What does this fold into?
Amino acid sequence: MILAIDQGTTGTTCLVFDAEMELLGRAYSEFEQHFPQPGWVEHDAAEIWSVTRAVALEALEAAGVAPGGLAAVGISNQRETVCVWDPATGEPLHRALVWQDRRTAERCDELRSEGIEPLVRERTGLVLDPYFSATKIEWLLANVDGLAERVAAGTAVFGTVDSWLAFKLTGEHVTDASNAARTLCYDLHERGWSEELCELLGVPIAALPEVRPSIGGFGKLIDDALPGYGGTPLAGIAGDQQAALYGQAAFQPGEGKNTYGTGSFVLVNAGTEPPQPPPGLLSTVAWGIGDKIVYAIEAAIFVTGAGVQWLRDGLGIIDEAAETEGLAASLTDNQGVYFVPALTGLGSPYWDPYARGTIVGLTRGSGRAEIARATLEAIAYQSVDAVRAIEAAGGRPITSLKADGGATTNGWLMQFQADVLGVPVIVPETSETTALGAAMMAGVGAALFTESDAATLWRERERYEPQMAVGERDRLLDEWHRAVGRSRDWAGA
It folds into this structure.
């Protein structure tokens, strides 16, 4: 049996698979989101661990896994979020700064004005944006009393969420290459932490975790982490989007996927040589196995599912996400209403931290259905922008889109995505592909099966063919881009 821990932005899901990737048990729990100031997003790392631990034990019980019956554990995680803790006590020293957090936008502007972005771009494949980890670490050092002194004394360490969970599970301060590559401190070419970048960005390299291949050994579970399962190897770790790419069996260059979660992320396998980062896109590590690293081209969309969550928690116009499908389908068209969900700025291909959420086209007759439909349409439009940017960079069209994540259960959205993209959207049998990828990596890392075996485990569930006329598709996208223009640089004006 393999336990996959999928630690996401709004909750933790744990799934238990057998060696044929058949799902045996599942559990999920949300945790609290903290917004202390506009643009700030924080998590309680201790709560993340307690929720993860409880959910893992619940999933193992649901699957009927007896003590000693667990062969491997894999982790997928929200990526750029930064945790800081005392390695002696295992206690967090500040709330985690979430990838959505924009508090370092001005600092990124300062660094950009100093002319270092070309170096950052060339070494890391990323852009200078508060999305990534380095400026969050710098902020913590500058604003948490005594933290810099603790780091110097070795009584405080940093890590992304995978590193935090690995520490709580095994006691080791480790990460994998796919998560390290999201920090702005990892050199894609040298395949390790960059002393030069760490110095430029104010990150103490000694406080960072050891980088290991995504597939392999990260230590063994300590006895009290998951009681009854001590000694089980933690054999796979990858950032959630890289894990989803693996779970979609995108093992060959040119194969890709879109994951619909809190945000949406389009990744395409770029082979074993670090690609030049295309305009508006990112180059990153997909995964590492042994001495081999596989790279990816990525488009990062910050708010998709989080927009639906905002309708529920912020506006209170729905009680659950599933309601949006019926509301959208109740209208014959969008009534001219567009929602640009730049609630934490815009990611690919715009990279505008000063963009803000914008709803245009409202009339006296607009209501819940129009806003709900606009929110779903925005998910699809942003994905089209991402795919088109990747197509332009690669010089070849994408002929189909593998889709995964919670939103794939929304048939209306998947059909609309196929319509405005103009190619089939394919949903796998296991829509929770992020957890599936973590499980597959752990299985390969624990030598339960090979990567070639893993390629045979992907199975198609549903295919959505485009039905919309080209003229209508172009009109909708033109109007969407008009709306995006209204949201750009709003907070920076």
Q: What stands out?
A: The first helix runs from residue 45 to 63.
